[in-house]
Amino acid sequence: MNYEISLWIAVITVVLVLVLVIQIVYQFLVQSKHQMRTAELIRRIDTILEESGCDHADNLLTECIHIIDHYKINLVELDFRRMITIGELRHATLASMERYYKRMSSLHEKTCAEYKELMDITPEKRSLDQRSRYAQLREIVTNFGGELNNLHAKINASRVQLG
Questions:
Q1: Phi and psi of 83, rounded to 5°?
Q2: Of 66, 94, 98, 112, which one has the fewest beta carbons inside 10 Å?
Q3: pLDDT (0 to 100) of residue 80
Q4: Confidence class of residue 110 from pLDDT cuts 50, 70 and 90?
Q5: Nearest CA-CA partner of 114 in 130, 127, 128, 99
Q6: Which contacts of 34-41 are long-range, i.e. CB under 8 A and separated by 24 or more positions?
Q7: What is the chain's Cα-based Rg?
């Protein structure tokens, strides 16, 4: 009889120890995932706040909000350079897209000017390098102009949302 009781106590002890180990491992995995997502959130916020701007800042903002909501991350608790709220992050996102747009518009103007210079040279008088560069610039001017228009539309839509 004592043998059976000892056996049952041993089985119950082993089961309790296994449950405890499983809980510890699970907690460690959850905390690791939370820390990983927090670091990911900080990287995304840093990208939005970059001085050069970001063309996909609106997508990063959406990802930030998802991470904050899903992992219950409090922006105030983050070890961040300064406190930032979701509202401030929305405004920073718009400002980031505007900085990027301004920088790319300037680059586009320079590219268009170079393209126009090559366009003024008759095709027969263009060197082989000039012909190659002309073809590159024509492609860049055409595609880049469309991308800038799309970005400008996204900026205007963000302005409307922010009021």
A1: -70, 140
A2: 66
A3: 59
A4: very high
A5: 130
A6: 34/71, 34/73, 37/67, 37/70, 37/71, 37/73, 38/71, 38/73, 38/78, 40/67, 41/67, 41/68, 41/73, 41/78
A7: 28
What is the pTM assigned to this prediction?
A: 0.67
Residue bearing tokens 């905390």 = 31
Q: CA 58 to CA 96: how far, in whole Å?
A: 9
Q: Is the pLDDT of residue 3 over 80?
A: no
What are 119's two structure tokens? 């366009």
List domains and CATH numbers for the chain.
14-162 (1.20.58)
The residue-averaged pLDDT of 96-119 equals 91
Contacts of 140 by beta carbon, 8 Å cutoff, 6+ apart: 111, 115
Q: Which amino acid is at 60?
A: L
Structure tokens at 133: 């560069």
The percentage of residues in the chain with a pLDDT greater than 70, rounded to a whole number, is 94
- Please tell me the predicted confidence (pLDDT) of residue 109: 92
Contact by Cβ (8 Å): 151, 100: yes
Residue type, 162: L
